[in-house]
């Protein structure tokens, strides 16, 4: 009825208003957090499923100080992306990841790779590749140890700046990985048009692997396709040995998830690595 429609409308407008207020207050907190350097990177191991060794780590951003509400990246990254701040924090993430990776190499783990997440808006700016070059140079890190995780969204834009930057990053020797694979646009032509190295199966598929025939079928088909195209496959969100065993049988190359470790601070990561890889 009319009455109900009106109530529904005011309900939504109130909700939108609260959402806007919430966003504004997170944004104010984020600006302070950037000034105060209240962010850290945490690291989650990527395990080679053929030998059980940790060969790489994904760097995940944490707002670890002055974050009373405990906001996680899924909440605050989209807000950063809607402002200029994503470029500033993104630059810091690349620099910090290269610094830490070099530190691990100096500590004797000299084959460890590091992955960073990069938003599509970051690729829109030509200065992005310069930040990457500068960070690698600053820490004297070889480009093949750095992997960029990007989403399908980046590759379907047909944007000249993005295409040129991806090409120069690949020419330099950086690894490219497609994150959240299968949940995006399913236009696979970019797998042929861009020099991609790895695809990362989204955790929404991996979590269902041992309970849903359909999820299993998709994961199996993706791994087979990837191997024909000479791509590595990483499964994210591996929480149980049942799922790990299925992935081993499907010849999935790498996996990450709570079964091994959540993302942890730099020091804890390197300590756990000692026990992991020296068994
Ligand atoms: P993502 O890149 O898909 O990262 C995977 C997310 O799954 C991470 O959440 C990770 O902590 C979580 N995860 C890892 N293992 C498991 C598991 O076994 N089970 C479950 N249920 N979850 C698991 P997180 O750290 O909260 O990050 C969320 C998203 O925020 C990331 O998704 C990524 O899109 C974005 N993000 C994180 N750090 C950065 C960054 O430095 N820059 C940009 N642009 N985005 C970032
Ligand atoms: Ca990722
Ligand atoms: Ca992902
Ligand atoms: Ca994601």
UniProtKB/TrEMBL annotation:
Superkingdom of this protein's organism: Bacteria
Record domain EAL: where: 23-277
Protein name per UniProt: GGDEF-domain containing protein
Origin species: Leucothrix arctica
